[in-house]
Design brief:
The chain has about 450 residues and is α+β, with helices and mostly antiparallel strands. The protein has three domains: about 15-90, no CATH class; about 140-305, Alpha-Beta Complex (Sulfite Oxidase, Chain A, domain 2); about 315-435, Immunoglobulin-like (Sandwich), CATH 2.60.40.650. It contains eight helices and 23 strands. A hairpin with an 8-residue loop joins strand 19 and strand 20.
């Protein structure tokens, strides 16, 4: 889901500070002001629709003042419920950058916990803007080397037996900035924020292909999106018959507009660009289509003069999201070292963490059950002694694959590659507690 051009700078949204009240009472002015914020949340959806209609590229928001809370909330009546539940005004995770028509918006990994990415914080990669498709007019066509070409409306897709599964999507270009231009002030969002993990609900592609009747010569399926780029990728028939699905729901609600509404393709464990959004057709073919996005793009030049093509499966990877820049450890003592790991080969089975630059490693705890082709949250409790340290994480998956060091990655892939970055990340902890990206 990437272009070869360099990624734009990303800024991490800072968490607003809490304003201190001077008395235990809350003034009528403050109450009215807070109610105004609440009312703003209630009308945000219509305003967003109007903004999109008037200026699709404009997503800049006016600065918001720091929220104010009473010293004792139990003494003040609360606000009534609203049509949509808003985040607490003290929390401000955000995709960045915004206003992107062709390019990427990165997920704020450092602001997230657990493994599920909130739908509105799922990373985005667009090739010609976000289309608006009327669900009543949506259709998915299956044709080509089939006995019975068919088209399904959204309502008809929902009449098939549904499956619900948790899977990550990882952009093939995720990590490019950290590989090409590492800087101490890179955040987890800027380094690896082009991966997200969600619960997807839909119908298995194999179910739909059986309705069409695939011919014996049909070894591949060309998937095409309904956006203005008409992005397309060839997917092996074996994968489509295995675990691929057409998803119409994400985290318990319809797929978000920017993430493929009304329906998208999910190809678990494969590079993000193959998970076609706004899916409009599946064409059964007898060989790869060799379209632009599987020839000129998503191919890795190697040091020996050859190139790696159709490297669909994403290699095992991990990143420490806390502590990470711009965090600062405020005192010596116990600190949790936490992050996420994922692999396109199935399940993550172990994540090792080093606090001394790789001289020794300790197995981290995997929090919660680990699903195939899904993010795994890891944690290691670290007793920091107040001296400089280097933090690393190393993922291992169920095939025995081990996440490589940066030196190993460069030796195997060389400087020419522009995709599939999965080397071990490092964080430098200074004696004053500051944390910066090490490479």
């Amino acid at each position: 889901m990437t272009e070869r051009s360099s990624s734009p700078d990303v800024t991490s949204a800072a968490t607003p500070t809490v304003g201190e009240a001077t008395t235990g009472a809350i003034s009528r002015r403050t109450l009215v002001r807070s109610a105004g914020v609440l009312a703003g949340a209630a009308i945000s959806a219509p305003l967003l629709r109007a903004a999109i209609a008037q200026s699709p590229a404009s997503t800049t928001l006016a600065p918001v003042s720091s929220p104010v809370a009473p010293l004792d909330a139990s003494t003040v009546p609360g606000f009534p419920s609203t049509a949509l539940s808003a985040r607490a005004s003290f929390e401000a995770p955000a995709l960045a950058p915004t206003g992107v028509t062709t390019g990427a918006s990165f997920s704020p990994l450092q602001d997230l916990t657990g493994t599920i990415t909130p739908s509105d914080l799922h990373f985005q990669r667009h090739h010609n803007g976000i289309p608006i498709i009327d669900p009543a007019r949506y259709s998915l066509t299956i044709h080509g080397l089939v006995a019975r070409p068919v088209s399904f409306s959204l309502e008809e897709l929902k009449r098939f037996p549904a499956v619900t599964r948790v899977h990550f999507i990882d952009c093939a270009g995720n990590g490019r900035t950290a590989y090409r231009a590492p800087r101490p002030d890179l955040t987890p969002q800027m380094i690896d924020g082009l991966t997200s993990n969600a619960e997807w609900t839909g119908v298995l592609v194999s179910t739909l292909l059986r309705e069409a009747g695939v011919e014996r010569s049909g070894d591949w399926v060309l998937a095409e999106g309904g956006d203005a780029a008409r992005l397309s990728r060839s997917v092996p028939m074996s994968k489509m018959l295995d675990d691929a699905l057409v998803a119409y729901a994400q985290n318990g609600e319809p797929v978000r507009l920017a993430n493929g509404y009304p329906a998208r393709l999910i190809v678990p464990g494969y590079e993000g660009n193959m998970n076609i959004k706004w899916l409009r057709r599946l064409e059964v073919i007898d060989q790869p289509n060799m379209s632009r996005d599987e020839t000129a793009k998503y191919t890795d030049p190697l040091p020996n003069g050859t190139s790696r093509q159709f490297s669909f499966v994403m290699d095992a990877k991990s990143i420490i999201t806390s502590p990470a820049y711009p965090n600062r450890l405020t005192s010596a003592g116990w600190w949790p070292v936490s992050g996420i790991a994922w692999t396109g080969r199935g399940r993550i089975t172990r994540v090792d963490v080093s606090t001394n630059g790789g001289r020794t490693w300790s197995a981290a705890e995997l929090l919660g059950p680990v699903s195939p082709h899904a993010h795994a949250r890891f944690q290691l409790m670290w007793n920091w002694d107040g001296r400089p340290a280097v933090l690393l994480s190393r993922a291992v998956d169920e095939t025995g694959y081990v996440q490589p060091t940066l030196a190993e990655y460069r030796k195997a892939r060389g400087p020419g590659t522009d995709y599939h970055f999965n080397s071990i990340r490092s964080w430098n902890v200074g004696g004053d507690g500051t944390v910066t990206f090490g490479g």
